[in-house]
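Notes from hallway chat w/ T.B., transcribed later so I don't forget. T.B. wanted the structure written out for a chain they're using in a teaching module, and asked if we could keep both sequence and structure tokens in one place. Agreed to drop them here.
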Amino acid sequence: GIAIQFNKRGQWLLDQHSSLNIGRHLTIFVLFGEKGEHSKWIAAPIISNRITDGALIFTPDVTREEAEAIVKGLGIKKGLDKPPKN
């Protein structure tokens, strides 16, 4: 899985989006690779509740190599079991 902890603005946007769209899909699209040469829809989890803490955790539909390239491109540390606490 991939865990993303958003900054204050991202936290606010995720809170607003999730509270207005409970029961709907949150589609996740990425560009990755050295020059952004790969693009792919990687997940569409259903929003089951309002997300107020800014943490988005999902299992992408990608290979391990693609997941590592995505994580590297986002600057996320590998090996985290859960998002970092504020």
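Follow-up for T.B.: The longest strand covers residues 38-43. Might be a good example for the class.
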